[in-house]
Amino acid sequence: MSFLVGLECANCGTGYRPAEIHGLCTHCAKPLLARYDMAKLRRAWHRETLPARTTTLWRFREVLPVQHDDNIFTLGEGGTPLLRARQLSDRLGMTELFIKDEGLNPTGSFKARGLCVAVSRAKELGVEGVVIPSAGNAAGAMCAYAARASMPAHVVMPHDVPSSLRLECLAFGAEVTLVEGTIADCGRKSREIADRDHLFDLSTLKEPYRLEGKKTMGYDLAQDFDWELPDVIVYPTGGGTGLVGMWKAFDELEALGWIGAKRPRMVVVQAQGCAPMVRAFREGKAFASFWDGAATVASGLRVPGAVGDFLILRAVYNSNGTAVSVSDDALLAGQQALAKEEGVLACPEGGATLAALQALLTEGWVRPHERVVLFNTGSGINYPETLGRTAPPPSA
Ligand SMILES: *Cc1c(COP(=O)(O)O)cnc(C)c1O
Ligand SMILES: [Zn+2]
Known about the structure:
Blueprint: E1 4-9, E2 15-16, E3 32-36, H1 38-44, E4 82-84, H2 86-92, E5 96-101, H3 111-124, E6 130-133, H4 137-148, E7 153-158, H5 163-171, E8 175-179, H6 183-197, E9 200-201, H7 209-224, E10 232-236, H8 241-256, E11 265-271, H9 276-282, H10 309-318, E12 322-326, H11 328-342, H12 348-363, E13 371-376
Parallel strand pairs: 5-13, 6-7, 6-9, 7-8, 10-11, 10-13, 11-12
Antiparallel strand pairs: 1-2, 1-3, 4-5
Helix pairs in contact: 3-4, 3-7, 4-5, 7-8, 11-12
The structure holds pyridoxal-5'-phosphate and zinc ion.
């Protein structure tokens, strides 16, 4: 069962009842975070129970928001492999380099974690249909889980997304609206459609439960490493749900008594053509300003303004982490190296983590004997146009 007890605004602290449908905080328009009864859980739940459970993220059932098992709409998400990167380690002179391969999730990306939990919880709360603005993996993941939960789904995409993505959504029975313009224009259109058709908006961090699904990457890692977190986590950051989610997971894990106070240094990786978090970090800011003219082949990183910006930056500052941007050339080279040297058909965003790691090793910010995890957030299969390419696209 779930030990969810409330929702709390991450900015102003206002509390909300979890049995109702909520989006952003109604006072300050910032994200809401799910809170669980950790004191009770610490006595009631032990990590030794995990191996006998499902390998999906639902083994962390107690710290997920869904109350009734009947409302879990799973496709086998989570529990992805943590791979030792031997050849890359040797080449980089490292000893403990790992890849968490999220490409093995349903629909080929870690977006499955967040949308599985968000769709399941939305269904439980009586939501009748869902809508999302997306130029990437969130679209397919939402449509897959909506199909499984027999909920109507509507996706709003920029007209120039790869056709494979549009076809994937159509295959899941969703309605697709194409918009001339950017993802921001899609967001506006999606709000219109939500009002018109009474659909619930599943945009990242605009409802509280995608974060809960993505935080399970942190729970996974802790278990993968036998409850001793690594020294450094390198994460390709767009809206930041994954990074913020893992950071939340670590606090919960400590409250459970499953890990100690040690935290990894969190590294935000962005593309040079869209790096609002890197800029804000360099300037020591608490919030990031909008990035004009965002352009990169890594569609997951093409997020010019993130509603959870202050949560991303907080995690980076509090962990003594850093933020790095890499060129499209470098991230595509990283993507190729992950495939050629480790057999991991990575997405370009995954390639960006390797490019960032190389820069951080050169600077001496990462030391060769530290335990480092690169997050490959999706499968290269979803990006056929980037495979084997070394130069950025002419339009970028
Ligand atoms: C969405 C996405 C990202 C960015 O994820 P956030 O957690 O929202 O920052 C990175 N990589 C891929 C492949 C994505 O689809
Ligand atoms: Zn608030």
